[in-house]
Amino acid sequence: MNGMNLLVLGAGRMGLGAVHDLAAQPDVDRVTVADMDGDRARAVAARAGAKGHAVAVDVADRAAVTSLMRGHAAAISCVNYWLNEQLARAAVDAGTNFCDLGGNNAVVDAELALDAEARAKGVNVVPDCGLAPGMTAVLVAHAVGRFESVGDSIGEIHIRVGGLPLDPKPPLDYQLVFSVEGLINEYVERARVVRGGRIVEVDSMTELEELEFPQPFGKMEAFQTSGGTSTLPETYLGRVRELDYKTIRYPGHCAKFKTMIDLGLCSSEPVNGIVPRKLFGELLVRNLPHDEPDAVLVRVEVSGGGKRLRYDIIDRYDETTGLSAMMRTTAFPASIVALMMARGQTTAKGALPQERCIPPDAFMQELRARGIRVEEEWR
User: Fold this and answer.
1) Where are the strands (E) in 278-360, listed by range?
2) Is 177's pLDDT higher than 80?
3) What does the alpha-carbon distance between residue 287 and residue 233 come to, in Å, rounded to a whole number?
4) How far apart are CA 327 and CA 317, in angstroms?
């Protein structure tokens, strides 16, 4: 297919990464960047060169966004998660394929409830298409497919992911690589897992474990956080005994951040007219490093039939493009999903989790084409 027009909503870091990747595809003619700040939209659109086009629009204005979506083969939401349900509805109204970076289970459920309407329009709505939730769901589907293709049942699925500074600095050994609201959500909301074949919820910032990566990372820690399993518990319910997701950080991060949560700094209840969570978020933005060279670590382990398959990804800041590892591993997977929807490569229409409609082999090929290497080990 030639002459595709794609739409990116949001001109932040992830919008920039998506635009960069979409513009590099030979079958994409035009990439439109929409943001309330016209100057930001124009700056990001410039990344696409002659293919770039900028529009100043309030993405909360459903009528304006619906009108804008028409004529685009697919749209990617790179804005705050609470806008995604309305944007998905606008996409269905416009007859435009839609994916987003997700991050909130209730919003994802509302989007998936649009399945019948999306199928009737012949489009896809695919939420949670970033890194984790996102790319990891397709890695899981790929690994599970390899077990089941030879008749082996699956016992356990474990996902571990972290975005990390290459040069960690105290007090948290962490830098902001995406929305601070999204970060706090991951740390304070409960995590959905499969235990003993049942879906249950556990507290975030618990069940600390140690894991090892090649140097310079070495020993790292991982702990429960919300949102990372997304729709995987429902997809694999009845097929696995155990399924969970944990966030990877440098040792000591969990204890420090949990102390601040326990002290109420992430509470939305006002204290003397001040909302602690809002103030704390602003302090994190002000005091944590931004945009320094980073790495993303991913480990997906699937076991069954006496075997274990492990996928590892270590992706680093790209000095050539200036794109961070988090931008590459979050925006590029969303771009891949948008392109697959636009090219008609999904296995089914409707509002569906990506592990149910994105062909895993083709997705893995697209990752390789972008230099995101998945190391594989059977045990």
Assistant:
1) 294-304, 307-316, 350-351
2) no
3) 36
4) 9
